[in-house]
Each structure stands twice: as C-alpha cells, then as structure tokens.
Amino acid sequence: MFSILDFDLPTRVSSALFWAWIIASVMLALGLGFLAGVAYANRATDRGIRKASKTLTSLYALVLDSLENSRRIVALLENFPKVALTKEQVDQLDTKRGFLTDMMGRLIGTQRDALAKQVETQAKPKPKSKPIKLTWQRGTFDAHTNLPDRTAFDVNLAQMLDAGSRAEVPGGLLQIRIDRIDQLKSRFGIAGSDAFVKDLAAVISQSVREQDLACRLAPDLFAILLPNVDAESGRKLSQAVRNAVRVHNFRTHDGGPEVLVTASFGFTPCPPHDSPEAALTRSGDALAQSARKGRNQLHAYEGEAVVHCAAG
Predict the structure, then answer these.
(1) What is the full DSSP assignment across 25-48?
(2) Which of the pair, 129 or 172, is modelled with greater confidence?
(3) Distance CA 41, CA 51 (A)
(4) Predicted confidence band at 272 (pLDDT cuts at 50, 70, 90)?
(5) Domain span including residue 233
(6) Element spanning 286, H or E
(7) What's this model's pTM, rounded to 2 decimal places?
(8) Pairing of strands 305-310, 258-259
(9) In-domain check, residue 133
C-alpha cells in the first residue's frame, strides 16, 4: 500500500526545490512584465508628446492620460509584494514628486489668472460708439413729392454707410412700395394715384426721426435712410412707419371718400463696412416677400434670414 512514509529525504528536497523554482519564475515574470510595461509606456508617451505638441487639445489630453497612467503605476509599485526601495530610490521619487507639484502648480496658477482676466474683460461693458452726424445732400428733388430723388438717395446712402464704417456705427435701410399702383391708376386715374403718392410721402416724412432721410426712388417706391440704429431699433422704426401708413385715411381730395391704400415694407440693418449694393439687395428681397404676402406687410433681415415682422 502506498504511504507517505515511502518518500525519502532526497525526494522531499527535490520537491521543495521544484516548487521554489516555480515561485521564483512567476515572481521574475511579474517583475519583467512590470518593467516592460513601464518601458513601453515611456516610449509610447514620448511618441505621444511629439504628436500632441502640434495641437493644444491633443497635448492637454496627453497630460491627463499620462497623469492617470502615472497614478496607476505608482499604485502598482505601492502594492508590489514585499516592496523595499533603497534610500536613493525614495529620494528620487520625492524629487520627481516635487518637480511635478511645482510645475502643475505654476500651470494651474497661470491658467486661473488668464481665466480671471478673461472674465473681467467680458464683464466690462464695451464703450458705446458716438452717433454719427450727417449733413444730407439734397441737390436733386422729386418735383411731385418734394423728396430727394434717386440720385440724391444713392449719394446719401453711400455717405451714411461710409460714415458708419469709419465710426463703427450701424444704420438701416427701409424700402416702401405702394401696393397695386396699377389698380389705383385704373380706378382713380393718374391724378388720383398721384394724390395717393403725395399723401403717402407726407405720412412717411412725418413718421420718421429728424435725423432720418426719406427719398422717392421710383413712381411707386420710397426709401428711408436710418442712421445710428441697430437691428432691433431699425425694426421698431420700420414698424412705426408701417403703422402710420396703415391707420392713415387716404382720399383723392379733401372731403372725398376714403380709399384703401396700402404698402409693402422691407427693412435691412446696415452694419459697419456694408456696401450700398448689398444693402439695396437685402432690403429689396425683404420688400419682395412683403409684396407677395399681402397688404401692409413688413419683412426684415435678421442675420442671414428674412423674417416676417407685421401684417394687416
């Protein structure tokens, strides 16, 4: 029968040496694996630094990744079986820790200062631009309405945009077209339609500010130059002109019957460095949309889009 007593001393010694060899091999493999991982991480980090140095975002991501890897490696070293570092190794770790702490402290401090200055700059209100003062050129007039004609309008539009560009002050342009002028001529004749045009010119002139300029560009088309207005102020002024036209009682003559006369309105802001051609195109597009929509419509440019502001 087999018995433990059958093992002699040499056999027991050989068995003990075998297991000792197995344990030593495992420990050696773990140590070599750890060293290889650290070496690979160093080479990978070097390659990452060279690539990431080209962009701030990549470099920031690499720093975070490297710090996380360092934390994991230190934790691995801390938990390594029977770790016993020499005094020199401990001093080296302490020195590296001090360098890293100092550099991170400087980096974080510098960035926090920059962020604080950025917030302070954003919090400061921008100085308001001084309104521009224009002397309108009134060299040529429309004989029927006594308003500046197309030639005077072109000169004054260019003057307003140029002055606004130099002073960094925005302005605005409102175009107004009488709705269905041909039907009015057919019903009331040329004299009647001319009376409506003259009446509309008076309403427009009375509804604008003193610094604005109303002009007649064509038989059924008017335009108003609005200096010193932003987009919101320009829309409100355009709305005021539209409302004045909408509530006015048009007649062919004093004491005559009231006639329904409406108009379409198109507004565009004119930012600094705008051009006359671009401003006219935008306000014309807004006016065309109003005309398609119906009577007494107001459309205005808002950014790159035309929006419907008022109807009826």
Answers:
(1) HHHHHHHHHHHHHHHHHHHHHHHH
(2) 172
(3) 15
(4) very high
(5) 150-310
(6) helix 276-293
(7) 0.60
(8) unpaired
(9) no
